[in-house]
Specification:
Blueprint (H helix, E strand, L loop, with lengths): L1 E4 L9 E8 L8 E9 L5 E10 L2 H21 L7 H22 L7 E10 L2 E7 L4 E5 L2 E4 L7 H9 L5 H5 L20 E2 L3 E2 L5 E5 L8 H9 L6 H14 L8 E8 L10 H56 L3 H4 L82
Length: 418
């Protein structure tokens, strides 16, 4: 077990970060993580990356390291402008996947290796993230803990089926391959990517990136460890969480890596908040435009009023004209516009065939349009998980009670499970 503060923390007063890790009950460490700081003079700029390897010890450890290094290289070479952070994170995931694919092509023995991946970029008071797989990203704020990234394992689908009554508690607990991943970095098309928008930090926030070994603790237990930490710094948070995992003494405990980022009070003291300033600028622009909007609104109101008045006058004039015509002719004005022909007498009075009905009075030219009920929309099925040799992937993501008459798959050996 190793718990240590990172050596690259140039803005300890503004932002402190640390990580801790343990091999657990596995034969080797397949997790890999990295912090990278970008600027000191312009304020904190920090990139945190974590990957959880799979596919056997050697392949898993190699996959996680390769993915993190490819992600770092891609993101660092991207434009750091505010509007391009999301695209830089997205492209970094793609480059990591391409790197894994290239390694597998060069060495067929690495076929099936892969990893989860979560990357978080913090700049000033803003942070963004991208994630693939089941490695959690937590935000601790005002005494409450919340997972803020998506879980790409089968767990959410099983929980949904349980909530809908499609599974019992026992069936959900014992569901086969419940830890299978629906998306991972494996050199193949990435099925699911969670890419966030910009989020603002608040004083007292704590961000936690981890491999799924931390899930040995419940969210309430993680929350309690952060709340009860005597020293409000990242090193203490990481160490307490790791010790809590070890204290559970869980059989076959997975690798556990915990990265913690804790913004300091000085980050928020006496400094303009760039993102809030941008929102204020947007409000000012709206105010500057408001006189023009008001003028347009007034003109539209005048135009609508004039139209309504004109319609009323025309209707009034029409009523007056109808009254005059009826008093002179003894007939309504509408009838005076029609000239009735005298009916023919004798042989000329041949019956006239009725006129064909006007198309405008027909119901529908489509014989099946009016009496055909709309088809029911197809029922969406859960996305299929990609099978992979020696990984957490499962070929079937449909959620239903397992058939107890069929033999269940045996638990994979410890060195092939992530």
């Amino acid at each position: 077990m190793r718990a240590e503060e990172t050596k690259i923390n140039p803005f300890a007063e503004d932002l402190n970060f640390a990580y801790a890790e343990t091999v657990g009950e596995r034969s080797g460490q397949e997790d890999y993580c990295l912090f990278k700081s970008y600027s000191v003079t312009s304020g904190p700029k920090l990139l945190a990356i974590l990957a959880d390897g799979m596919g056997g010890h050697a392949a898993g450890a190699r996959a996680s390291r390769m993915a993190v290094e490819a992600f770092l290289k891609s993101f660092s070479s991207a434009n750091e402008e505010q509007g391009r952070i999301k695209s830089a994170l997205s492209n970094a995931v793609k480059e990591s996947n391409i790197y894994i694919e290239g390694a597998q092509s060069a060495n067929p023995e690495l076929e099936g290796m892969g990893c989860t991946l979560v990357g978080l970029y913090l700049e000033g008071h803003s942070f963004y993230w991208v994630s693939v797989g089941d490695s959690p990203l937590y935000l601790y704020r005002n005494g409450r803990l919340k997972r803020i990234n998506e879980d790409h394992s089968m767990a959410p689908l099983i929980a949904s089926a349980l909530a809908k009554g499609n599974l019992t508690e026992e069936e959900a607990q014992n569901y086969p391959n419940k830890n299978a991943l629906r998306s991972a970095i494996m050199g193949k098309p990435v099925e699911l990517v969670d890419l966030s928008d910009e989020h603002l930090l608040q004083e007292g926030d704590v961000l936690i990136l981890a491999s799924d070994g931390l899930l040995t603790l419940s969210e309430s237990e993680i929350e309690a460890e952060i709340s009860n930490a005597p020293h409000r710094n990242a090193k203490d948070f990481a160490a307490r969480l790791l010790q809590a995992v070890i204290a559970k003494n869980k059989p076959r405990q997975d690798n556990t890596t915990i990265m913690v980022i804790a913004p300091g009070k000085s980050l928020f003291a006496g400094r303009p908040v760039r993102n809030r300033a941008r929102l204020d600028d947007l409000s000012e622009k709206t105010v500057k435009k408001s006189p023009l909007l008001m003028t347009i609104s007034v003109l539209l109101a005048v135009l609508l009023s004039a139209t309504a008045i004109g319609a009323y006058l025309a209707y009034s004039n029409r009523i007056s004209l109808d009254s005059i015509v009826q008093s002179l002719t003894g007939k309504p004005a509408a009838q005076t516009e029609k000239t009735e022909k005298p009916k023919p007498v004798g042989p000329e009075a041949a019956p006239v065939p009725p006129a064909s009905p006007s198309p405008s009075t027909e119901s529908s030219s489509d014989p099946g349009a009016s009496n055909t009920a709309p088809a029911e929309p197809p029922v969406a099925k859960p996305p299929a998980a990609k099978p992979s040799q020696g990984s957490k992937h499962s070929p079937d993501t449909s959620i239903s009670a397992p058939n107890k008459n069929q033999p269940q798959e045996a638990e994979p050996p410890a060195d092939t499970k992530k």
